[in-house]
Amino acid sequence: MEQKLQGRKLMTECNKCGTGIEPGESYEFQGKLLCEDCYMDVMNPPKTCDPWAVHLAKSSIIQDGFQLTALQEEILSLLKEHGPMQMEEITAKLEINEAEFRNAFATLRHMELARGFKKGDNVYYTLFSQE
Predict the structure, then answer these.
(1) What one-character-per-residue DSSP string does 43-70 give?
(2) What is the pLDDT of residue 25?
């Protein structure tokens, strides 16, 4: 556990992302000190198969004209261009980590724009309308 002195307060670093954490603002998980964002990621990972989230996402598209993030657009463009891909290929091409991909993809799945499927022991990601 690394600590830094900032001003007069002793700050701790998140063991996952390295962000400085104010005293009393850290969370412990499996022996590691985490910032709030990293703690939320490990305690509540995005779920791609969630019927209620699908309903809400589709409703927000119709009612609010929901816009995709730049990363979500890039994932869709990559899948349109290359067809089904594994996560490792997508994260390497977009230079993102697995958590960033999973968060962006969960929304795409809820909006029924992209989906995952198994082929043998491998998981592939593709556009919702493609085989």
Answers:
(1) HS---S--HHHHHHHHHHHHHH-----H
(2) 83
| H/E element, 34 | strand 32-34
Percentage of the chain beyond pLDDT 70 is 71
CA angle 35, 36, 41 (to 5 degrees): 100
- List, in order, residues 6 or more apart from 53 with CB less than 8 Å away: 47, 106, 110
**CATH number of the domain at 51-127, please?**
1.10.10.10
Residue-wise pLDDT for 77-108, tens only, equals: 999 999 999 999 999 999 998 889 988 998 88
For the CA atoms of 120, 123, 126, 129, the dihedral, rounded to the nearest 10 degrees, stands at: 60
Output the CATH code of domain 3-43. Answer: 3.30.60
Q: Which residues contact 69 (CB under 8 A, 6 or more apart)?
A: 104, 107
Note the pTM of the prediction, 2 decimals.
0.57
> In sequence order, what are the residues at sequence separation of 6 or more whose Cβ sits closer than 8 angstroms to the Cβ of residue 57?
66, 107, 110, 111, 112
Q: In whole angstroms, what is the distance from residue 77 CA to residue 80 CA?
A: 5
